[in-house]
Design a protein that fits this description.
six-stranded parallel sheet, Rossmann fold, globular, alpha/beta, 17% strand
Length: 551
């Protein structure tokens, strides 16, 4: 920052932008280079010791890495791509950040200002393109306004319900020399619940005999999870995680009773249906979490509902009830001040729910030579408690959601949008955010091949990540639905895969495959001991697509 008496030095727009990143504490960015923002690449060269740039092999990979980095750190993940095709490829990361409430800023090199609205080379109107899936989309016309616009971008990404911001940067604007002062760094704005809202919540909780607490959404922290755990244990309130938010509260808590979403247990769904008070903290209560809006019927669910959310626009959007506008950490902090409401009846209710969850999550031995429940549960037991697991989409994820335990926020990286190809790049973003933690990426054969090129990025950066490919030779989820609706009429879902071990070795990884449960322990140990990325292929029989774990 400069004082009123100081005159800032002349800088190019690109230098102003990079300086703003540094002022906001950015130490890591992700990119696929493009000629439309060469000035930024040059400015990053001068601060390469302070701000690392991960060069990726595809813009979808770069944006997913930035999204995962934002999830892990709570600060905007930064991604740079070029115009047109680059921006189109990167859109998947923006969509994931939107649905997962992840802070992120996507910078797009744009055509020069005198070329606009002529359908110039690779020109797109990004306000129209990204408007529905970003919190804010803008194009900077004047380099003098960069400090203002960048300050707003960071503030928007982290405030209220976090989310993605898209900023378009005309290449000639980046080369423009200006004399401007830097803006102050952005800071998160907490929203505390109003006293009257807490009073309404406390009254409803005191009257409930079968309450259930659903956690989810963006803006959480380890402390928020700890606060919620203490509250739920003291008041005998079962905790359910919304779709792919299983790491918000330590799964060892006797108040944690499972998850909602795709493939959720019948017991978890029944808890919501039979509840006499549903408390949704941070979760949007979207389609997956509510089983297609059937567990809670909009707009007025049969169960009394308390909905706490950071975005006032989300409250009342689908469901009515006691609506509280607050950020999750601030609401969680106030829970300790509530009068105690637990009783023997609620204690028995919670105990039964926990026992049902433990039974559901226990992996029973099978007669199969190789089965995913043994593989997943064995990996979970062998690796540290704070291991970070990432995955994309597919039937294989149902085993992860059932048989992995999560203890640390954040340790589950999984897109609520159900985006394939997320696991590999997300693991790279996570490892760069927390280099000392163990990171494992799961992907089906179809899912992994959508981002397999980023193994080159992991190897180039020397990241010790385990990539697990579950290979059943099909788009398993779609094949499962296909067999249910059109038995015996297989169309478009079979895959002829490469040799994943040979492919990974070609990228420079240590790689091996197993087709027997007995091979897992030693193969996993060799992968863990390798000083760099490794790949473990799980070679399933083709029938595995049709046998996800039963609810």
């Amino acid at each position: 920052m400069t004082t009123a008496q100081e005159q800032p030095p002349p800088r190019t727009g690109a230098q102003v932008l990079v300086d703003a990143l540094l002022h906001n504490g950015v130490t890591q960015a992700f990119a696929v280079p493009g000629e439309s923002y060469l000035g930024i690449l040059d400015a990053l060269y001068d601060c390469r010791e302070r701000l690392s740039l991960a060069t990726c092999r595809h813009e979808a990979g770069a944006s997913n890495m930035a999204e995962a980095y934002g999830k892990m750190t709570g600060m905007p993940g930064i991604c740079f791509v070029t115009r047109g095709p680059g921006a189109s490829h990167a859109s998947i990361g923006v969509h994931t950040a939107h649905q997962d409430s992840t802070p992120m800023i996507l910078f797009i090199g744009q055509v020069a200002r005198d070329m606009r609205e002529r359908e110039a080379f690779q020109e797109i109107d990004y306000r129209q393109m990204f408007g529905p899936v970003a919190k804010w989309v803008t194009e900077v016309d004047d380099a003098k306004r960069l400090p203002e616009m960048l300050a707003r971008a960071f503030q928007t990404a982290i405030s209220g319900r976090p989310g993605p911001v898209v900023m378009s940067l005309p290449e000639d604007m980046l080369d423009e020399t200006v004399t401007v002062s830097d803006a102050a760094p952005a800071s998160r704005l907490p929203i505390a619940p109003h006293g009257s809202s807490l009073a309404s919540f406390s009254e409803a909780l005191g009257a409930a005999q079968r309450p259930v607490l659903i956690v989810g959404g963006g803006g959480w922290s380890q402390q928020a999870g700890n606060d919620v755990r203490r509250f739920a244990e003291a008041h005998q309130v079962p905790i359910l995680a919304s779709f792919r938010c299983q790491d918000f509260v330590d799964n060892d808590s006797h108040a944690y009773v499972g998850r909602l979403g795709l493939g959720a247990s019948a017991q978890a769904n029944e808890l919501v249906k039979q509840s006499d008070l549903v408390i949704a903290l941070g979760a949007r209560l979207g389609e997956a979490t509510t089983q297609g809006y059937t567990l809670l019927t909009p707009p007025n669910p049969e169960q009394p509902l308390v909905h706490i959310h950071a975005d006032s626009r989300e409250l009342g959007r689908v469901y009515q009830g006691i609506l509280i506008n607050a950020t999750s950490p601030e609401f969680a902090e106030t829970l300790s001040s509530l009068p105690h409401t637990g009783n023997d009846s609620r204690a028995a209710y919670l105990s039964a729910a926990r026992q049902a969850y433990e039974s559901y999550a226990h992996a029973e031995p099978t007669q199969d030579k190789l089965d995913l429940q043994t593989v997943v549960s064995s990996i979970g037991k062998a690796l540290p408690r704070d291991t970070i697991y990432s995955n994309g989409a597919g039937n294989y994820t149902l085993w992860l959601q059932r048989y992995l335990n999560f203890h640390t926020f954040r340790s589950q990286l999984a897109p609520t949008s159900g985006a394939m190809g997320y696991g590999i790049p997300a693991a790279i973003g996570a490892k760069l955010a927390y280099p000392q933690r163990t990171v494992v990426a799961f992907g089906g054969d179809g899912c992994a091949l959508m981002s397999i090129q980023e193994l080159a990025t992991a190897n180039m950066l020397g990241l010790q990540i385990l990539f697990v490919v579950v290979n059943n030779g099909s788009y398993g989820t779609i094949r499962m639905h296909q067999e249910r609706r059109f038995p015996g009429r297989v169309s478009g879902t079979e895959l002829d895969n490469p040799d994943f071990v040979a492919l990974a070795k070609g990228f420079g990884l240590h790689a091996e495959a197993i087709d027997d449960n007995a091979q897992l322990s030693e193969a996993l140990s060799r992968c863990q001991c390798h000083d760099g990325p490794s790949l473990l292929e799980i070679r399933l029989t083709g029938a595995a697509y049709a046998t996800p774990p039963k609810p």
